[in-house]
Amino acid sequence: MKRLVVIMLTLLLVTGVAFAKNYEANKKAGDYDVTMVIDKNPPVVGDNAVTVTVKDQAGKVVNDAKVVIDYSMPAMPGMPAMNYKTDAQLKGDDYKATINLSMAGAWNVAVKITRGSQTTTAKFNVGAH
To answer: For residues 54 and 39, is the Cβ–Cβ distance under 8 A?
Structure first.
């Protein structure tokens, strides 16, 4: 009986992990609504696919901007700060990039949107496991 319970709990746990939703966060950046989706929840150490959707005040998708993702981890005792940057490429109505979180812990992610001569930033905090 105990064995059956252990097997059932393991199956439920594995099924829950297999169907876990993406990490999704929304922020305001100036006049834009920014949605950032990471393909893993929680984000993991290593490569994470990021999709950014930018909408204007009218709710229309913005697809004529330059989107850069800056991600960093602050310095800690015995470890310098880590700072990385990647350009997101427009694919359809979304901007896509891959970020490589080099260690577990709290990361600051800044999505910088440049349209014309204006740059605005949406700031997110994510925890990599």
So the answer is: no
Distance separating alpha carbons of residues 13 and 118, to the nearest angstrom:
46
Task: List, for residues 29-77, the tens digit of each pLDDT value.
Answer: 999 999 999 999 999 999 999 999 999 999 999 999 999 999 999 999 9
On the CB side of 123, CA atoms within 13 Å amount to 3
Are β-strands 46-55 and 66-73 bridged in parallel, bridged antiparallel, or unpaired? Answer: unpaired
Q: Where are the domains of the chain?
A: 22-128
Average pLDDT, integer, range 104-118: 97
Question: What architecture does CATH give domain 22-128?
Answer: Sandwich (2.60)
Q: CA-to-CA distance for 110 and 35, rounded, in angstroms?
A: 12
pTM of the model: 0.83
Nearest-angstrom CA–CA distance, 39 and 50: 7
Please give the DSSP secondary-structure letter assigned to residue 57: T
User: Does pLDDT of 105 surpass 60?
Assistant: yes
Residue 110 tokens, joined: 């800044």
C-beta separation of 71 from 107 below 8 A: yes
